Model the fold of this input.
Amino acid sequence: MNAGLTNPTTPLSTVGAQHDAGLSCAKGSIPPANRCFDAPAPLALWHLTSLDAPTVAVVWALAFAWAAHRTLPAWTPILLALVTWTVYIADRLLDARSAFRMAEPDPLRLRHHFHWQNRRLFIPCAAVSACVAACIILICMPVAARERNSILVAVGLAYFSSVHAGRNFPHFLSRLLRPLLAKETMVAVIFTAACALPTLSHAAVGGSVHSASPLWSLVAAVVYFTLVAWLNCHSIERWETAGISSPGNRGSRSGTYSQGIGIGLAGLLLAGVLFSHHRIALLIASGATAALLLALLDQFRGRLTPLALRVAADMVLLTPLPFLFQ
Done:
């Protein structure tokens, strides 16, 4: 990667140009028939500002509630969005700081450079977001819900610390957590659990579950969406670390295609089995559609810039969005 990327003060436009040029996506570098397509500016900003993860989290949380015939309190999706945004900003800033301190910026992506260059804006935003989230928890969240959520928070903090604390993290905890689950799996489990927990808690505490969406079918949907989230994380990790997202490697195999097809078909089969539970079946079918779209992205990844591919990988997770308007 170009030396300009090692300088955290390099203008974003320069970073982006170097990033694309290094992957042979610059204008005129490949035949027009195989040209790369970049993400539109609004969608690129949606990803670069870390707003993609909160959007997916809110859509999934509301979709789980829809499938269970539940209505979440207004503060719930707001809290979920704030916490998710804070965590993602912190994660990208810490990744960037660590890479620049070690003079190893090669693993960094455009999103990391964007956060680091604009850290004077992102750090206050993350602080305000965290404070507002804390106020919502103290004012709006019932005590019983805090106790249930504390377990997930503890697991998330432990994993986050094990990733970013390095040698400062207790050795025995680091040895326990890091080999336990791969990064993609851990992120998928925590993310999906955070989205589903409000609905699962309401269903469990309410004492009565809608006959059209029994609790076990909702749990099946949550497990399946965890698998979809894993596929998303795993695909992005392979595309970005293996360098197979460039046009010259379009014919290479990343494994995502076969995994996406397998997970997608399994989801359609599960939706068919749960057809009598109409909303759950539709929700799982939307997850299956997301998996199949990830497989399709893998096939056409050589015609997308790395930024466009990353944006598209998150956009396909919004397949449950139409249900929120019913």
Remarks:
- The first helix runs from residue 12 to 22.
- Confidence is low (pLDDT under 50) at residues 1-24, 26-33, 244-251.
